[in-house]
């Protein structure tokens, strides 16, 4: 059996990779994928703790997080496609039309 600490270490590595992707990259698609990577890292840690404590509460919570992430993907990709159609670019530095 693999110890829970290995899952938590992998989750921390995935989360920091996603965090650096959000902070460093300027492409909207890469930022969007980095946010999804951070969500999946949090899901992995919830499942690891669920396994550690022998309950299904973490796994049920992960199911709801994945449902919200699916809705986020649909809305986020629709926004990215709409912005690309109007600006012909998905560079985050050029997107200032939402600044009120």
Brief rundown of the structure:
This protein is an all-alpha fold and 100 residues long. The chain has one domain (4-88): Helix Hairpins (Orthogonal Bundle), CATH 1.10.287.3510.
Structural summary, described in words:
With 100 residues, this protein is mainly alpha-helical. The protein has one domain: Helix Hairpins, CATH 1.10.287. Helix content is 77%, strand content 0%. It contains three helices and no strands. The model has no long low-confidence stretch (mean pLDDT 89).
Please give a handful of descriptors for the protein shown:
100 residues; mainly alpha; 3 helices; Helix Hairpins; elongated
Topology of this protein?
Elements: H1 4-24, H2 28-52, H3 57-87
Number of E-type strands: 0
Order of helices and strands: HHH
CATH class: Mainly Alpha
Q: Number of helical runs? A: 3
* Global structural class: mainly alpha
Integer count of domains: 1
> Quick one: overall form?
elongated
Could you report the average pLDDT, rounded to the nearest whole number? 89
Through-space gap between termini = 54 Å
């Amino acid at each position: 059996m693999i110890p829970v600490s290995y899952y938590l270490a992998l989750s921390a590595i995935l989360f920091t990779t996603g965090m650096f992707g959000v902070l460093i990259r300027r492409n909207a698609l890469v930022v969007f994928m980095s946010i999804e990577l951070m969500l999946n890292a949090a899901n992995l840690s919830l499942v690891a703790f669920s396994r550690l404590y022998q309950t299904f509460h973490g796994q049920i919570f992960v199911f709801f997080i994945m449902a919200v992430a699916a809705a986020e993907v649909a809305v986020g990709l629709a926004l990215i496609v709409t912005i690309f159609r109007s600006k012909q670019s998905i560079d985050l530095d050029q997107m200032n039309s939402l600044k009120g």
